[in-house]
Structure formats: structure tokens, C-alpha cells
Write a structure and sequence with these properties.
Layout (H helix, E strand, L loop, with lengths): L2 E6 L3 E7 L3 E8 L4 H18 L4 E6 L2 E3 L4 E3 L12 H9 L3 E5 H11 L8 E7 L3 E7 L2 E3 L20 H4 L2 H12 L5 H9 L3 H25 L3 E5 L8 H12 L12 E3 L6 H13 L1
Parallel strand pairs: 1-4, 4-7, 8-11, 11-12
Antiparallel strand pairs: 1-2, 2-3, 5-6, 8-9, 9-10
Helix pairs in contact: 3-9, 5-6, 5-7, 6-7, 7-8
Protein name: ROK family protein
Family: Belongs to the ROK (NagC/XylR) family.
């Protein structure tokens, strides 16, 4: 089966053809308006339709897919994605089956079915991008929660006021650093400057590691999984796990009794997990 799989993110949109692996990848930066997004997606889909016998189109989306209404509900850093009839728009335009799934759930499906998770009973998947999403696996099943918000870890008010999606995101870290310096920087550039010892970049990255570790600590003691799997673009960062574990050591010595140290692993598929998981959503529906 030939599936066009598309991952819509707060910073960029990635795409590929999936049969049993990803091929012919493309990407573009997420535009600022719904109209521009629709134009770019239409151009992208038309490109693939001219080259491949596409049988279905699968989307990984931020927020909460409502399979009854065909809309993307909830909240995300890409606000306009929630403002139109998502499934109807693409199914009517391309006359093909259209599927959508939450981005964190897509990443989770990829790792559980094909990646490092294997026969997992209880785990958390944390996907770190422009925002932070996640999935809870309990007894081998995804827990969506009463209102389908289960796993929206990024909404935690991690310092009492600011969300983990802001404090634990390299994109938001770079925006704050750019304001401080009066010049635009990417997250990768801030990390590179920190490696060189630039004092403000070091401070910015240290805060990021701290808040990610704090979020992980809280999730461990709220849900008590076997392990926590980290995915998203930031997992390509050299020594990310080392820095988070260093901060966890500090947090666990704040004075409380902490008998359990979170077991953390990096996802096998990294930034590809959403694309793969969206395609697997199609296959599991057959």
C-alpha cells in the first residue's frame, strides 16, 4: 500500500511516501496563516500524486483529532489548524481516504510497533518539538483520558505559571535568547553557542535541561511508568540525555525522599516517528 504521510508541526511540515519505509522526503516551514498552509499542502500533495499511486493520505497533527467531526480540536502552537473542517477539506479535494492522528500518538505507535518499545506495558512517550506532547501507555493500551487530553504533558504549569511546552522547548528557548541578543537565533545555534561557552547561551540551555528534567520527574511520580521515551527533533542533540540525567540528580536531592529514578530512553525513529506512526494508523484501520 502506498501512503502519503504528512507531519504538521508548529515549526515545519514534513512529508514522505510510506510503503514499508519512508521515501522521497520533503519539508517546508509552517506558514503563519491557514490559507498559506492550505496552499502549501495542496502543492505538496499534488507533487506526490503526479509521481505515486497514492491510496491514502495520513496526517500527524497537533491537538486532538475528533474522528466524529473530522476537525482538529484542543490546543496547539499552530492555532489555525483548529479552524476548519480538516478531513472534509482534503477528502473532497483529493477523493482519497484521509486519516489523522495526534502527533504524540503517532510517535508512540511507531515506537511500540517498530521501534524500541517492544512489548511495553506501562510507559510514557514525550515528544519535544515547538510544544511538548505525549502519550500514556497503560497495560499496553494508549490512555486518551475522559476528554482525550491524556498525555498533553506540555500543558503542565511547571513553575506555577508557565507551561512545560514553553519552558522545555528549544524553539521557545531560542526566541527568548533572540530577544535578549537583538538578533534571530535557532535552537541549534543557541546550543552551539553554549558548547562554546557563551554565558547567556549556557544559562538558556541549563534552564531548558532543568525544566525538561523537572517535567520528567513529576510525570514519573504522577504516573509511575516503567520508562519514559523521549522523541522529537531535540533528541538529535548531542548529550541531551546526559544533561537531563544530570539535572534529575539535582532535583532528586532537593530534600524529598525519591526512591525511583526515572528510566529514560531516546526514541529509535526520532523526528521520523510522527510520519511512520501516521502511516501505521492507516494500516491498522484495514
Amino acid at each position: 500500500m502506498t501512503i502519503l504521510t504528512i507531519d504538521i508541526g508548529g515549526s515545519s511540515v514534513k512529508s514522505a511516501i510510506y510503503t514499508d519505509k519512508l521515501e522521497d522526503r520533503n519539508h517546508f516551514f509552517s506558514p503563519p496563516s491557514l490559507n498559506e498552509m492550505q496552499v502549501k499542502l495542496d502543492q505538496l500533495i499534488s507533487y506526490y500524486l503526479e509521481k505515486y499511486p497514492i491510496e491514502a493520505i495520513a496526517f500527524s497533527v497537533p491537538g486532538i483529532p475528533n474522528h466524529d467531526t473530522g476537525r482538529v480540536e484542543g490546543v496547539s502552537s499552530l492555532r489555525y489548524i483548529h479552524q476548519f473542517d480538516f478531513i472534509s477539506y482534503f477528502s473532497e479535494k483529493y477523493q482519497r481516504p484521509i486519516y489523522f492522528e495526534n502527533d504524540a500518538n503517532c510517535a508512540c505507535k511507531a515506537e511500540v510497533q517498530l521501534g524500541i518499545a517492544g512489548e511495553v506495558k506501562n510507559a510514557l512517550f514525550m515528544v519535544i518539538g515547538t510544544g511538548i506532547g505525549g502519550t500514556i501507555i497503560s497495560n499496553g493500551q494508549i490512555l486518551s483520558g475522559e476528554h482525550a487530553y491524556g498525555g498533553e504533558f506540555g500543558m503542565m504549569l511547571i513553575d506555577g505559571r508557565h507551561e512545560l511546552s514553553e519552558l522545555g522547548s528549544a524553539v521557545h528557548m531560542a526566541r527568548k535568547y533572540s530577544i535578549l541578543k537583538g538578533k534571530s537565533y535557532t535552537g541549534e545555534e543557541v546550543f552551539a553557542l553554549a558548547d562554546q561557552g557563551e554565558i547567556d547561551a549556557v544559562a538558556a540551555t541549563e534552564k531548558l535541561y532543568h525544566y525538561l528534567a523537572l517535567g520528567i520527574y513529576n510525570l514519573q511520580y504522577m504516573i509511575d511508568p516503567e520508562y519514559i521515551v523521549l522523541g522529537g527533533g531535540i533528541t538529535k542533540r548531542r548529550n541531551l540525555l546526559k544533561h537531563i540525567l544530570r539535572k534529575l540528580d539535582e532535583i532528586m536531592n532537593y530534600g524529598q525522599v525519591c526512591p525511583i529514578t526515572p528510566k529514560i530512553r531516546l526514541a529509535k525513529f526520532g523526528n521520523d516517528a510522527n510520519l511512520i506512526g501516521a502511516a501505521l494508523t492507516v494500516k491498522s484501520s484495514k
